[in-house]
Records
---
Amino acid sequence: MKTAKFQLEPLTCPSCIKKIETKLGKMDGVDEAKVLFNSSKVKATYNEEAVSADQLQELIEKLGYPVLN
């Protein structure tokens, strides 16, 4: 298992957290996804044989949340 961390632009609503966590959590290979509202950081634990950090970032950005790092 690997861990990927992403810094997002400031989140404006708590429902953003649920949306990101739910969508990432449904991806094949993702074990856990956590979003910290106050710091706008995403931490995802995933199986690198099933999914890549680039794919996680792509999904986050498709949801409308630009990744800063």
---
Amino acid sequence: MMKLTNFALCVLALLPITLTAQTLATSATQTQTANDHHGDEAAIQQVMNRYHAAIQAHDGAAFAGLFLPDANLWLNVLTDSAYARAQAKSPTTQKVRVSNYRDFAKLVTSTTKNFDPEHSNLVIHTDGTIAVLYFDFVFNVDGKANNHGSETWQLVKAADGWRIASIVYSSEPPTQQ
């Protein structure tokens, strides 16, 4: 039979106290991190709300202000079925179209059409410094669905708050009758 020294007995006696203290400290840290992330998620949701409002108000400057100034990645990827339809009309159609937020901001400012994007099934992942949004969308123009698909935004938390770094979305325009 093994003999335990007084030191070993003290260590064994203190082990539950140490583990409880570590668990409480970890739990407090996790709670604080969760609270921070909820605040970040709310701030990111506000970016999406301002995005929507700027489009509806035809406010290209407010829209552009949601992006990092040097961010230029805006990818529109046609779904396979939309690509096949587009190629049937024009064989030179590109499946992936590269643009930037500045071009869309100009369109938002210059159009007389009523743009009304709808967003659903929003998922936000963030560590408090970077974030990814993934959601489904329907882009309505003058009250009719003009496009739908899934969309992802990559955001960064800049010194002055959350900014969009890039947008990538699938595109499934309605079939023309």
